[in-house]
Amino acid sequence: MLGSGGGGGLATIFGQGGLGGDIKGALGNMFGSRVGDSGGFGGLGLKGTGTGGGGMGNTIGIGGIGTKGRGGGLGTYGVGVGSLDPKKSSDVSIADSESVIQGSLDKELIRQVIRRNIGQIKYCYEKELQTKPNLAGKVAVRFLITPKGTVQTAKVAEGTTLRDAAVGDCITLRVRSWRFPEPKGGGSVIVTYPFVFKQAGE
Fold first, then answer.
1. pTM here?
2. Is residue 152 helix, strand or coil?
3. Residue 169 backbone phi and psi in degrees, to 5
């Protein structure tokens, strides 16, 4: 029966072009020596849950990645992203009318140096303003300028109304790093300069 009819009957099913050929072709596609589109069982496809090209669901990928946050976010910032409070703006002015200069250094020259470094003074105030929103007032600084123009000492002076040790320490530290013109005729100069601090718009 298998051979009768010149290749007909069941021979047609299991012959070269029948079921036998299809099975062989299918198995060859799965287990051949070359990797085809269907990678066979456990194929390393990027996505999919089945066998073959889709893999078994545990692919090489590492899951969704959010720029920030825990877990696999939505490809942006995840969930529950924290944020920083906006920097509070401030006004810092020099109370020129209350300044006191003792020595042979022109008041305007001293004022120019202070103006040039006012950003340092503003930083000292704004740093504390972030955690103390009601911080405001005046800090008077008394400092000694040497004959070489360097600042030998600096401290918070009488007349200060902004009673905050952190702000005062920061300001005196910055003032001690400043450099002034050398006083005419030598000698030291004692300066008391008040700085007035408040939040912008107040």
1. 0.56
2. strand
3. -65, -40
> Does some domain include residue 16?
no
- CA angle 69-70-76, nearest 5°? 40
Number of H helices, E strands in the chain: 6, 5
Per residue of the chain (202 residues), what is the pLDDT tens digit?
455 555 555 555 555 555 555 555 555 555 556 555 554 455 555 555 555 555 555 545 555 545 555 554 444 444 444 444 455 567 788 888 889 999 999 999 999 999 999 999 999 999 999 999 899 999 999 999 999 999 999 999 999 999 899 999 999 999 999 999 999 888 999 999 999 998 876 5
**Helices 118-129 and 107-116 meet at what angle, rounded to 10?**
50
Q: What is the CATH number of the domain that holds 186?
A: 3.30.1150
List the domain range (segments joined by +) for residue 186.
90-199
